[in-house]
Structures are given as C-alpha cells and as structure tokens.
Design a protein that fits this description.
The structure holds two protein chains of two kinds.
Chain A: E1 4-7, E2 10-14, E3 19-25, E4 29-37, E5 43-49, E6 55-58, E7 61-66, E8 71-76, E9 85-93, E10 100-102, E11 106-111
Parallel strand pairs in A: 2-11
Antiparallel strand pairs in A: 1-3, 3-8, 4-5, 4-9, 6-7, 7-8, 9-10, 9-11
Chain B: E1 4-7, E2 10-13, E3 19-25, E4 32-38, E5 44-51, E6 57-58, E7 67-73, E8 76-81, E9 90-98, E10 102-105, E11 109-113
Parallel strand pairs in B: 2-11
Antiparallel strand pairs in B: 1-3, 3-8, 4-5, 4-9, 5-6, 7-8, 9-10, 9-11
Chain lengths: ~110, ~110
C-alpha cells in the first residue's frame, strides 16, 4: 500500500529565511504533485514531477524529485508572508494507477 | 486553463436529509473524476473514483450506499450524501483528470450537518 509522509508537519519561520519540506513515499511512483491550500480553500497546483532528477521552480518555490530515494523536496527561498499556507505532496502509484495519495500536509507560517 | 466547478460551495442541512454536490468540468471532458473528503486540519482522503458511464470505485471503508456517486456525462459527476449525520460534516473536494498528468481540483463544498 502506498504511503506518503511529509515532514515537518508544522513549520514556523521568519521572512527572508530558507527552508525545505520533505515528502517520502513508500512504493514506486509515476508522478508526484505539490499543492498549496489556503484556509477554507481548495487545492492550488504548484508542481508535477514526472521523472528522477526532475526540478521545477516557480518564484521562491523549487521542487525536486529523487525516485530512487522515493523523496521529493519543496524548497522555499527567502520566505515571504504570502507563502503561509498548508502544502501537500501527493503521489500516484505506478503501473497506470490513478489513485492520488496525499501526505499529511505541512502547515507553514511565515512571520514578519 | 482547465476549470472545475463545484456546487454548492457550502451547505447546511438537518440530520437525516440528503445532500447532492455537483462537480463539473467546464472546458474539458473528464472521463474520470475523484471525490475527496477533508476533515479540519487533516489531509485529503480519497473516497471514490468516478468513471463516466460506469459504477464508481469506492475506497475501503467508504459506504457506497451512503455516498452515492453518479457520473452520467463527460462533464458532470455528482456526490449525494444520503441520510446525512453530523459526523458527515466535512469539506468535500472533487478533481477531474485531464490527459495523463493533469488533475484539476474544484473549489470544494463545505457540508455542515446539524
């Protein structure tokens, strides 16, 4: 059974600092997604990572994927308050599976 | 970009009544849609996979007779919570699959059962 674990689950940081959220998954996967969720809202797609070594960047966020280690990271550079949200990674199993399994989420609070 | 519309965005109902939530893909056809449930401060849990023209596939522990899913067209899937009880209060989110790698999420429907 595919399991997805994120850490940390809670992260409070100051503006201007860098930090990384980790996402580990238990079985081989075709795809890994990162989403952002603001309180009371649905999910906003950030990245989809499809292959080993994939790296994608958008603004202050950068995501990478190591399929051999079954690990993805979401790196935040020079954090700003607007990035405060809950971040989820989600993984689709291999062999044509459609089911998306989510991590627990990382609640990120960025303080001025 | 692809848009998935979910309606209603919030609903309050009395215990014992049924509530229908609609999920529409507005500018693309979706043969597969997914329904998730999210309790406060928790992650999203997949409830079922909805396939156009066939029966939905439910995840283990999800009562198919309580959570009725209908995917009658390529742009519409509905989730009906039958005989709702307070423990069914949750945030229900649908997503629609477009192509191989793209999943678009609806805005979510917050259900409160009194």
């Amino acid at each position: 059974e595919l399991k997805v674990e994120q850490n940390p689950l809670f992260l409070s940081m100051q503006e201007g600092k860098n930090y990384t959220i980790y996402c580990n998954y238990s079985t081989t996967s075709d795809r890994l997604y990162w989403y952002r969720q603001d309180p009371g809202k649905s999910l906003e797609s950030l990245f989809v990572l499809l292959s080993n070594g994939a790296v994608k960047q958008e603004g202050r966020l950068m995501a990478s994927l190591d399929t051999k280690a079954r690990l993805s990271t979401l790196h935040i550079t020079a954090a700003v308050h607007d990035l405060s949200a809950t971040y989820f990674c989600a993984v689709v199993g291999s062999q044509g599976a459609q089911k998306l399994v989510f991590g627990q989420g990382t609640r990120l609070t960025i303080n001025p | 970009g692809a848009v998935v519309s979910q309606h209603p965005s919030w609903v309050i109902c009395k215990s014992g009544t049924s509530v229908k939530i609609e999920c529409r893909s507005l500018d693309f056809q979706a043969t597969t849609m997914f329904w998730y449930r999210q309790f406060p401060k928790q992650s999203l849990m997949l409830m079922a996979t909805s396939n156009e023209g066939s029966k939905a596939t439910y995840e283990q522990g999800v009562e198919k007779d309580k959570f009725l899913i209908n995917h009658a067209s390529l742009t519409l899937s509905t989730l009906t919570v039958t005989s709702a009880h307070p423990e069914d209060s949750s945030f229900y989110i649908c997503s629609a699959k477009r192509g191989t790698n793209v999943l678009t999420f609806g805005a979510g429907s917050r259900l409160t059962v009194l």
